[in-house]
Specification:
Number of helices: 13
CATH superfamily of the largest domain: Class I glutamine amidotransferase (GATase) domain
Distance between the termini: 46 Å
Low-confidence stretches: 195-199
CATH class of the largest domain: Alpha Beta
Keywords: Transcription, Transcription regulation
Structural class: alpha/beta
Number of domains: 2
Mean pLDDT: 91
Helix content: 40-55%
Protein name: DJ-1/PfpI family protein
Largest sheet: 6 strands, mixed
Strand order of the largest sheet: 2-1-5-6-10-9
Number of strands: 10
Pfam family, one: DJ-1_PfpI
InterPro entries: Class_I_gatase-like, DJ-1/PfpI, Homeodomain-like_sf, HTH_AraC, INH-QAR
């Protein structure tokens, strides 16, 4: 069982908190072992939107598989915002030193900076606060115009709604992009990735649509992309004709047929295996090709 601990500071933004909470709660309902915890120094905590939030003062025992998240708060400047106490900062440092992951949304990056966790690492925050974050923590490298950054188990995200992207990314890292796509689909949001990555996983890149029939077929292809998946079988599982499935799939994914989508997943996995030192033959067989000829053909096509 993995614990996700949310540290609530005064004037916390509700969406900074609720976005990541919903992602991990949805992952738990899809069978992943998460429990959510909320801690504060002095509860109840008044949110930036006026809603009082209840939280305990006792922290659960943590191990390296657990995650601590600091949502952001409303303040005109970081200097004018809430100052987490030394106990919170010490717990953040201790959890990271023990191999755990710490994360922040928006202004929450300042709390990680106060704990010394941004020193020598890449980070980001809301665009209105980036200059001040860089000035307050000069040993950090503040990255602009990205949704989130990850650096040695320190994860920071930009403004408010980007906490959803951060949480989806962490789910993808821990459980694979297929689960992250299912969570995003449950939440009816686009499954986005970090803005400084040139290309997101195909499992996420082609999921930013609302066609439930196509999502069901993608779920099947995602789970069994190395197997033969005839169009007739996919259409039967979706309860539509082959022609209808092809039309819906092409429209939802921006021009891909189910076969091209499957080939894209195979190629992406094969590229990863090749990058890990696998031979072309072994990578091709691993992803479902009889030999390396088709893999070479698809790689050549993708490089054009």
């Amino acid at each position: 069982m993995s614990r996700v601990v949310f540290v609530l500071l005064p004037e916390v933004h509700l969406l900074d908190l609720a976005g990541p909470v919903q992602v991990f709660d949805s992952a738990a309902h899809l069978g992943r072992p998460y429990t959510l915890h909320y801690v504060a120094e002095r509860p109840p905590v008044r949110s930036a939107q006026g809603l009082p939030l209840s939280a305990g003062t006792e922290w659960p025992a943590l191990d390296a598989e657990d995650l601590v998240v600091v949502p952001g708060w409303r303040a005109p400047t970081l200097r004018g915002g809430p100052a987490p106490g030394e106990d919170v900062l010490r717990r953040l440092r201790r959890h990271h030193a023990a191999g755990g992951t710490v994360a922040s949304v928006c202004a929450g990056a300042d709390a990680l900076g106060r704990a010394g966790l941004l020193d020598g690492r890449r980070c980001t925050t809301h665009h209105d606060l980036q200059d001040e974050l860089a000035a307050r923590h000069p040993r950090a490298t503040v990255v602009r115009d990205v949704l989130f950054t990850t650096d040695d188990r320190v994860v920071t995200s930009a403004g408010i709604a980007s906490g959803i992207d951060l949480a989806l990314h962490l789910v993808a890292l821990r459980h694979g992009p297929a689960l992250a796509a299912r969570v995003a689909r449950t939440m009816v949001v686009h499954a986005r990735r970090n803005g400084d990555q040139p290309q997101a996983s195909a499992m996420l890149r082609h999921r930013s649509h609302l066609d439930d029939t196509v999502h069901r077929v993608q779920d099947l292809i995602d789970a069994r992309f190395a197997e033969p998946l005839p169009l007739a079988a996919l259409a039967s599982r979706a309860g539509v004709s082959e022609r209808t499935l092809t039309r819906l799939f092409t429209r939802a994914t921006g021009g891909l047929t189910p076969l091209r989508y499957q080939q894209t997943l195979r190629l992406e996995r094969a590229e990863h295996l090749l990058g890990q030192g696998a031979t072309a033959e072994s990578a091709a067989r691993e992803v479902g090709f009889e030999d390396a000829r088709m893999l070479r053909r698809l790689r050549s096509r993708a490089a054009r």
